[in-house]
Amino acid sequence: MNLVTFSGPPSSGKTSVILKTLETLQKQGIKPGVVKFDCLYTDDDLLYQKAGIPVRKGLSGSLCPDHYFISNIEDVVNWGLEGQYDLLVSESAGLCNRCSPYIKDIKAICVIDNLSGINTPKKIGPMLKTADIVVITKGDIVSQAEREVFAARVQVVNPKAIILNVNGLTGQGCYELGTLLYSQKESLTSLKGYKLRFSMPSALCSYCLGETRIGESYQMGNVRKIKLESNQ
Question: Which one of 43, 69, 116, 148 is separated from 33 by 20 to 30 angstroms, measured CA to CA?
Fold first, then answer.
């Protein structure tokens, strides 16, 4: 079984891209499965069901979504192995820009859209910087010049990534993306011994544990203070 991880900011078009890409792979006889990670709500699983793709979803709720993801990914892989899927896709809804759900030696795809702002590539951390493939969507809404400038900004942040312009609505570019996702030579049977590409957030403070009161006397653990310069 192949495993790939998709991530990206909310509403960047991840699910549309995955659906169209898996459609091209299904036509080649490849059997996919999908696990959707989100924070509070998602009905994207219904879209996968409608497409005839086996799917499971997990909501992190009040937990850090990154910790929730990595705490469950082994069970997800086991589910994929039991289902005998050729390709298992893990879709993470943005998570936090500080870290990423990518695993070493597992293909990582970041989906980002042209409308997110010219400086967005600089704002996204390891989720973009450590991706193997960066998919840029919504290129049909902006000009050619804007597409080229945005792609150049992405390339500066992640010079090693393969950058693809993909239209998740029409499917343009999805066949090419599919050829990069699946390989018969790869066969994952367990994640034992694998490591994350980037460490999780180091924060562990009273607010992580449910504190809601404001004030230094309520702040414990890993707390960092902003440096405010005096006007005088």
Answer: 116
